[in-house]
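Margin note from the TA: students keep mixing up input and output lines. Inputs are the sequences; the output is the structure of the whole complex. Example:
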Amino acid sequence: MSRIDVRKTYKLFIGGEFPRSESGHSYPVHDVRGRFVANAALASRKDARDAVTAARRAFPGWSGRTAYNRGQVVYRIAEVMEDRRPQFVEALRHGEGGTAAAAHKLLDESIDRLVWYAGWADKLAQVVGNANPVAGPFFNLSSPEPTGVVAVLAPQGSSLLGMVSVVAPVVISGNTVVVAASAERPLPAVTFAEVLATSDVPGGVVNLLTGSLDRTARTLASHMDVNAIDLTGLAGEAERATALEVEAAENLKRVRRAPAAEPDWSVSPGLDRMTDFLETKTVWHPIGV
Amino acid sequence: MTSTATETAGPDREWADVTSSESSLRRFLHGLPGVDQVGAEQRAAGLATRSIKTTAKAYALDLAITMVDLTTLEGQDTPGKVRALCAKAMRPDPSDPSCPSTAAVCIYPDLVATAKAALGHSGVHVASVATAFPSGRAAMEVKLADTRAAVAAGADEVDMVIDRGAFLSGHYLGVFQEIAAVREACGPAHLKVILETGELQTYDNVRRAGWLAMMAGAHFIKTSTGKVQPAATLPVTLVMLEAVRDYREQTGRMIGVKPAGGIRTTKDAIKYLVTVNEIAGPDWLHPDWFRFGASTLLNDLLMQRTRLSTGRYSGHDYFTLD
Amino acid sequence: MDPTRSPGDRHVFEYAPAPESREIVDIRPSYGLFVGGEFVDGRGRSFKTISPSTEEVLAEVAEADATDVDIAVAAARRAHGRVWGRMPGRERAKYLFRIARIIQERGRELAVLESIDNGKPIKETRDVDVPIAAAHFFYYAGWADKLEYSGHGTESLGVAGQVIPWNFPLLMLAWKIAPALACGNTVVLKPAETTPLTALLFAEICQQADLPPGVVNIITGAGETGRALVSHPDVDKVAFTGSTEVGKAIARAVAGSDKRVTLELGGKAANIVFDDAPVDQAVEGIVNGIFFNQGHVCCAGSRLLVQESVAEEVLARLKRRVATLRMGDPLDKNTDIGAINSAEQLAKIRELSAIGEQEAAGRWSPPCELPEHGFWFPPTIFTGVSQAHRIAREEIFGPVLSVLTFRTPAEAIEKANNTPYGLSAGVWTEKGSRILKMANALRAGVVWANTFNKFDPASPFGGYQESGYGREGGRQGLEAYLR
């Protein structure tokens, strides 16, 4: 008799732990051929609220670390991901189809993207910050600071590379994040959360919600303790995205709008996914004996 | 208890003109050298890397035990609890009579008589908190009555709290006068002044409050009540050790330092002793001039002491919980 | 020792020896040159490297002659043309991240080896040299795939010839190699003749990281080897850290060529203490400034400029603090001050100190028992020094502090700037505007305010005037290795 394998339970990732949805709900995840793969947690608005609380609690610690330290932590995520290749390849092939080689390539790019962002932690201030030569006896310095708690709707199609590409730029500068994974392809994100849990990432820096955006997106967009929102996951859904942008205006969240179509994630990103979630602080000080 | 420092009755006369008005006292305190936070913390961190092994560790362990003010300050304290604490203070290691006793027990004033009876002539002192510990928020008469009652019941030492509200709102003269009044109410008992450094927040404030307490007649300056976080830290204690060093340099009077709260392990305690040694100097390496306000620390010291002599790591079953 | 004796007794807290174990280090009896990814025999003589704290011989090291230099440069050229210069930045980055990680993994081993070979305390190699070296590789690894944001171009120069000093052997190696490689250059590096061992261990680390052969080449040797390297016609870029004298010779040697050059040379930094300084931290800063690393630091605060009104108090506190410094076995974890790196350097320090004794008003050292073997010099303070004295002008490169006084900020600036050097300066005052005013006025590449001797890979380091040119560290540090 051939061996029965022990199947994984896919849960949410909030505050460094893996709870089920407080609603007790789950939903079936299917592969590209429609076959059942697993039940994933169906996050509720209360889960979203708890995730925001966890992200807020983690913010002072994470943003207070040295940039060097944040860079090291994100590099370690890449190390652990590299070590967990088989799980990611399998999850990708379930959700996005394609050959093993194609999945490996996507994983290569995801890991390299993490490494690219890891290296930005202690350089961003040198590229987007600067001294300002004001017309007076004043020292004047502009520096970027993380905005706070950021809600991110991860892309629906690219469930690993796209997901990493929207999360890494947000956290590398010190923000903490609540991510709503691709609704139909959540498994790579959950595996990614397991990597985070074992890579020195403090609990609450990244929080993951799985399930339909209907249940969670509005909570995140309207939550007064969320500082910014990335609507990439609603690419091509202008009406829904606009409604969320209207909600977000209540506390003037910084909004990254949904594109008309999901971007080509293999293209090297610029700085904007980092700078969209940064504030510039300018400090003056007189110069005199 | 004897002290080789010059006993003065009350505040040092040296400061009479500085303390003649609120504004002159403020100018004096604000004229003390500032403390750079990063520099002070880095110095403390550097001292914490000292490696104390073998004979040096044995010396430090025994010294640390003799410096412990074994403490219980709970609403639920009873005479039974205090008697057990006193037994432990006199004989910390039931299986080893060579282990020294602690310096004192530290308790609430209404339990002083119980402690006094339990400790007898063992040489372990009774230190009592007073002055509406831990908040200090009560009328002056109440705080003085609290002090006198503790002393009348036989306390050898009184640990008072300063009025942090008054300090933080700049009423330094009021704080000074309060300390001086409590010092007088202490009679023969020695006065420790708790600055509650966790509420003072800046090292500059700690330096100023420390000086204020010394000028007003403190025998010891103490970091914390242990009821507020953060309690004692190495950098805060370092700043206080600099203060007592400078004070002796200027006035000839020697004053002790007691970090209290948050010192749980032998490793921590040894870091403090290293800091005393290198900042204030070896003169302070004696229970007359340095104390640890602690409770769980004692068992860790005992376990380390046992390991040094037997070569084995010990466990909690071999030591009493109180 | 019974601490429960009568309260009248006072005790001395003696720290027992706390030696770091040497077991982790495996020093071979002899070493070759690291060229083209392998250890090969040198063609020149071999020389010995010793431990300056005990004078024991540690190993025999090859001396690279002109042919060896030629071969190494050729290996670097091949590696640049065929592999490294054309490798995408994101792949170069990952090699550098690997190297950074391995430095961390082998951190204790590197620290012990550095202390043995250099003479500096394990406390420093463990807590400063090795971690910052790893950090340099981490930092520059992250630039390899972001050069378009550097502001200095994206193309490598080719082959870099790098010569480093003995005072921070591994750290100086990191400062040189990390940015060079990140920018796509390949390197031939010569460590100082008295401190080759951590560079040779670094070569092993390159092998463990599977770095393509020829990207990093380590050639040991002395002055001749260095000269051959920096004047080699196929070297595109010269980077040198060392004495101003040799720096000038290099500048002359490359004149008229296409070689790019950066030089990081000597200094005679002023550490300026105002009357409103946070005095205890200022004393720490003075001590750190001149006694850290036995004063073998180009940016050492070797001139204390103290405001006259507080000079007496500051000096009293300083002497009291210096008396608690522990000098001795570099491998003892409680040692603050280690050995002088060589007999030669010790002789120089003694010579200048003898001159100082004649010039200055007072010479003071704490009472110190010097070990029988090895090269030792106690922390020394000269007071009553003026700008006219040689010990205020010449770099001693040892644990010797010259103390001058000043009355006003303008006078402090004048005295601080009155030197052909311009590497670093320190300012101690609680007044923010004064810090900034002084920083503006001081002609020094690095100004430390209320701190001293702080280094970070993100922070550019380098001097004005005869302290050299070019910067190492930060975004500015990329300029030297790009076109």
